[in-house]
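Lab meeting prep.
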Amino acid sequence: MTTPTNDTAPLRGRSRRGRMRPVASGAAGILICAVTLGAVMGTHPQTVSAVTSSITAADLLSIDHNTGSWIGGAAGVVVHRTASGDVLDNLPTAIDVNAIVSAGRDVLGNEEVYAAGDHGALYYKAGSAAWCRIAVPSAVFGENLTALASFGPGHVEVAGTDGLVMELTGPASCAATFVVDARVPGSATLNAIEHLASGTVVAAGNAGTMLVGHFDSVVHHLLFSPVVSDTLADIYGLAPSVHGVVAVGAGGLVVDGVISIDPQTLLPALVGHVLGGIPTVSSLRDAAAGFAGDATNLVPSVVAVGGNGTILRSVDGGLTWSITASGSTSTLHGVQLTGLTGGIAVGAAGTLITLTFSAPSTPTPSPSGSATPTPTASPSASPSGSPSATPTPSGSPSATPSPSPSASPTATPSPSPSPSPSASPTATPSPSPDAGGTSTTTSTTTSSGGGTTTTTTSAGGGTTTTTTSGGGSSTVTNTVTSTATVLVTSVSTSTTTVGQGGGNGNGNGSGSGGSGSGPAPGTLPWAHRLVEELYLEVLSRTADSSGEAHWVDQVMGHGQGPVAIAHALLGSVEYRSNFVQSVYWQYLNRGGEPAGVNSWVAALGDGMTQETVRLAFLGSNEFFASSGGNARGYVDALYTTVLQRSPDAPGEAFWINRMAQGSGPYPVAASLVYSTEQLEQRVSGYYLTYLARTAGPGELASWAHVMAQGTRDEDVILGFVGSTEYLSRI
């Protein structure tokens, strides 16, 4: 029998599936009993057998609900269940795997798998490729990711702390883009998310929080509304049920969630009822549903698992429940069903339980007689109207890079909106060469001893591109030609233009526009949607009530447009703090200490670019040491971190050779950060975030060219939010 675990609540901000402290406990009794729901009673005899995984003794914290083939554990443990046996396929970092899901197979037949953990850790792999970490929105690095759901390739949702819900937009890859659908700072942690066959998405978490979401064809992402769950207890698991969804949680909580279509809005609505007579007071950590192979039988078998080896089963789609023996007293954290009569449960200390149930008789579910109310309005939890800095995670400040007061930041000015309107806004943001002037900028970076020197020279003339080769491989271009200036103008018509000269940079990407009928431009609902979208896209959170009211007034009463709003958000301390914290987590795998964060935020406010900050971290002693303290480890870590891929053999050999010849870490990092590949990855993310579509090759190349000349990310974003294509999505 495995070591039992206690069932106490975890620390605030961590997944409720986190590791528990082992405690002493007596042997588990075996009990099969009836559950009452009104006048309905029933017993569900079944057999189960418990075994302990021979692959790992680590706590198993999560399981893929789609296939049951992937199990996530403590300290980065991942167990892959194959036809030939279980194998370990651990994450590259020792972070608890709070959630794991298989999203199906790509066009090449490779299985796509996602794993999530604390501090914004989101990993991806396809087929036999290694795990890679996806760069989530900067504000998300401070959040713990607690749940994953998928309804096939291209449909992936992530839930976490502070009411966070993200979804995949665009193609799946190591460089995939996730956008924030819902996030109210200070709100409850969401511990579970479920993508139902109907397309409705349900999320649930602490203090009885439940959200129901639907895909909006205008803004091209999920919109969520809070619902009445009939409980204030913490909810840890969700599963499909005969009425829509069943939620399980603390103290043996089971909630029957009835989903219907609101007759007025034609949107999904949900109301929850707490079921009485549940035969356990142990916290239920997860739930899963299994369906019969017969398509005419839509009543699932539902199983919930939890503390002290608890296993509950419902054969009538979540209405009546019975308890059964598990053969273990360990806390069970995850469950997956392969049908009506079988499945697997996982838990503490490597516990793995194979479930085998007797076939149920066909139940006759009692219909719900309660009408479904219209979803209530979004909560008006309102932090201050002026954005506040993100709380700093604790961390040891060893060898932390900090901006030197004597260093002169890049002289790129912050964007400044102009009150003069633009005559003809562009349909799609596309930087173009400015016919007025051309300058060639050559950057040379050398490092020796204790210092790094960067020399920049400019001269008029033609375009010069220098490519250095060595060891049979091509490297980064250090000479670029400045041929365009991006001019962003704030106008009363809520549009902006990107300054243009001759030619254009459009590729073959097609704009998605607004496929649905959104609110009429210039109306109050339109202004609210505009402000809400910009808060989600720039700050990765929903707008606080005072901030939203201020900007709606600016739009309706003072002629301000999206550029003015985005400019203020991009220049806020909150945006810069989010970015700095994301760099700490992405590059140093820890939170920044307050002094370091504040120093970098101030430097960004004084004009330092995001690339300069990235390079300081990538070239730091701490990053070099964490990547192995040698040239090969450092180069490999740079490729994985900056380009989101493994290095190609020629490129790896070239940079290792350069470092062996005396080149310091900083020039190698700069070459990758300013490479066309990395710039195009960032541009691709902006297209997906702000225009909800992929970019064409010409568009990627055009924007990457402009960014290579020193155009700030903030200016590029302003170009996107000011385009008529962006406005067509509101």
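Slide two material, second protein:
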Amino acid sequence: MRLMPIIPRSPLAIRLLVVIAMCAVLPSMACIVASILLQSSRLDADAAERLHAQSHILGRVIHDRLLRLDGELQRVADRVRSKSGAKVGPGEAASFRVMAVDREGRRRPRVIHGELGAGLAVGRDDIDRLEEGKTLLRVGSSAGSADPARLVLATVLSAGKPRRVLIGEVELDRIWSLGGERVVSPPLDVGLVDASGRVALASRRAPDADGEPFATRLAQQPSDVRWRIADVEHLAAMATVALDPRFSPSSCTVVVSAPRHELHAAAGPGALALSGIGLVTVLIALALGAVAIRRCLGPLQKILETSDRVAGWDFDARAEVGSGDELDDLAKSFNVIASRLNKQFHTLTTMAEIHRSILGSLDTDSVVETVLTRTRDVLPCDCLSVTLLSGTAKERADVFVASFDQGFEKTTESARITDAEMEKLYECSEYTELTRDDELPDFVRPLASRGCKRFLVLPIVLLGRLTGAITLGQRKGTEHPAEDLALVRQFADQVTLALSKSRLIEQLDQLHLGTLTAFARAIDAKSPWTAGHSERVTKLAVKIGRDMGLSQVDLERLNRGGLVHDIGKIGVPPEILDKPGRLTDEEFELMRQHTLLGARILEPIPAYADVIPIVLYHHERFDGKGYPHGLAGEKIDRNARILAVADCFDAMKSDRPYREGMPLGQVLSIIDKGAGTQFDPEAVKALMRVIERELEHRERKREREEAVG
């Protein structure tokens, strides 16, 4: 199993793992190393004690073997004394490699067993030290010599002149396996050193596979307790062995050595087990650290991924950790922040849309409609009202109420607002919170009647004057958060700007319409026969246009164009306008010029550019026989075609200096006959529907009056 999938690949994970290693693994390793060193020291001490005990035991064993060898040497010596010059049989000197008799003054010893080798002779000094019946131990190699160890036993055969000595070189393997019993077994190495440092015995005479002979190292460092053979550290122990009085010298030293690692292994698997336990402990610490890191970094990774999504405008992203610890609390706090950001972003987006909508509204009704339908997107509520003070009636207000019980429901009510209430609202220009237990103003009661228990009133102050209020009602009575209050106050300020704009536009429209009406009345006042003509024609044309489905913009244009459609008659002499008889061709031609003159009068005013076609073409005929340009059909401005029907209807129905007004039926008959020739057929049909509805309305009104009377 690989470790990398367990540990998240991040700089933080690496730092945490390093911290775990430094705080847990390294101290554990230090303790383990110290324990191993301490145990190694104890194992060395135990090994030294065992080697020391083993050296004493082996010293006694070797001494016993030397006694046996001496006994065998004495038996051969007795036989040689009794049978001078006789050879020794193989079974009589089995423990000796070579035996010879050396006589004082002879150059070479006489071999009686084995083959004679160099250095077997005994010096005169050695013979002098011997007494009859004594045995001499002599080592065949000296300290520091590279020659193999040799053990030689010698005893005096005769003390008379010339003296004879029996010399025997011991078969060293017989020392270690005399009688078939193995004295030394691996890993122990045993050596015997005399008082002068010469090696008498060594359990391993041949070198290791890649090392030096044990006897050589023993000869070099017989007194060290540690040495190295073939780069392997050895431990050693020494014991002085007191020999039987028959031997000369009277003592020697036994050295026992073994490889240090084998002594530790023989002492038991404690060090290895401790190392294994230490390694397992380290691995467990690392594994637990990796699990802990993953447990920590997993939630952090989720929070990081969620933060990246939130940074990418995905405010609906949430970090689900569920670890039940501080990281879980961090994730929950992050989710709360994300939720608030989502709400703020949604609110700001909604407010931007509302701002564009209300600031794009050109009339108060549109602003009120937007407020009633979109305020709930900014601040949740159960009911909502917009209160606007009346501009004419003091202490009266119109209350536009929206309820959201079953969809959107809008109603309009009237309310009375006192000076004290207006002053209180003006003083609390930010907002006022009310409950059902408070003394509620009259404009708040519509919301209270719909079950609301808590109310938030946002005054609308325009140019330093209270003009209304926005009221939000809640049935559960929960408090609004401070950030929501700030947002809704900002929204109310935008509504104030929109109302200011719409009211300014409405005032300009009223001024504009008033100016046009004044123009129309000035034109009509030029002749008593045309008084009120332009206003009546305009009203009827707007009704026809509305029936034909014209847009509000076209209806406004039709209304303005109708009021000034005869403005060119300013240039027509009164005697022509009031002439009781038929006009001459010259007079009629002059009358026909009023459409061109009207267009020229309005031409310098950019605001009237869109009504010039109405003024210019309202006397064109559908069949192309009209004036001033003889346009036909769809080439004539539609509003001009509508105004032509309304103009002819009012002209025929009204009194003129040359005739009385015609009955309604006759007028309608003439206009109907002119459909498709003089008039637009669609405009004629719309006129008929308008007149029919008005007649039905009058009939119902008369019936109600008769029923009341």
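Talking points for slide two:
The first helix runs from residue 11 to 82.
Residues 142-146, 205-211 have pLDDT under 50 and may be disordered.
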